[in-house]
Amino acid sequence: MVRMATINDAKQLFALNEAFNDAGETTLSHIRESLANNPQELIAVDEQEGTLTGFVCVQLKKSFCYDAVIPEIAEVYVRPEYRQQGIASRMIAFAEEECRKRYALKPFELLTGQGNTAAQALYRSLGYAADTRVHFVKGE
Fold first, then answer.
1. Is residue 49 part of a domain?
2. Cα dist from 17 to 23, 27, 34, 103, whole Å
3. Where are the extended beta strands (E) located within 35-106?
4. Distance (Å, whole) CA 85 – CA 58
5. Does residue 91 lie within any of the structural domains?
6. Which residues contact 15 (CB under 8 A, 6 or more apart)?
7. What DSSP assignment string belongs to 39-51?
8. How far is Cα of residue 121 from the mean position of the Cα atoms in its chain?
9. Is 23 among the domain residues?
10. The CATH number of the domain where 60 resides is what?
């Protein structure tokens, strides 16, 4: 079942994040704090028999330049043993709908690795398309 994350999901989200990102990227207390107090993030999860199988994070970017919110799908993760079951697609669709219910929106954005062809295929199947912008970073 896909649903919005709650503070009660913090421990499982911490474990999922440790599997997805490098260990030590964040702490359990930070995840709890974010779930409780971060209005600029929406987190959808899939739960099966009490176990979280994956999550989607949407960052809600706000600027004085626009009346609408710019939603960016920042993280998508499904446990390996639950992949190829449509979970990521359902979580993304759920997160998109939740954003639409709550905010006036600009188009959804997301970034993924050039070599992550599986994720690119998923995003294309959901109607996302590559654009012509160039992504820059500094300080890494």
1. yes
2. 8, 10, 13, 27
3. 41-48, 51-61, 70-78
4. 21
5. yes
6. none
7. TTEEEEEEEETTE
8. 17
9. yes
10. 3.40.630.30
| CA-atom Rg of the chain in angstroms | 15
* Count of structural domains within the chain: 1
**Boundaries of domain holding 6:** 2-125
Q: Give the model confidence (pLDDT) of 58-111 as tens digits.
A: 999 999 999 999 999 999 999 999 999 999 999 999 999 999 999 999 999 999
Stated as kind and residue range, the H or E segment containing 93 is: helix 87-102
Report the relative pairing of strands 109-110 and 51-61 from DSSP bridges: unpaired
Task: Supply the pLDDT for residue 96.
Answer: 96
Residue 82 domain-assigned (yes or no): yes
In this structure, the chain runs to a length of 140
Closest CA to 79 of 66, 71, 68, 91: 91
pLDDT tens for 21-45 read: 988 889 999 999 999 999 999 999 9
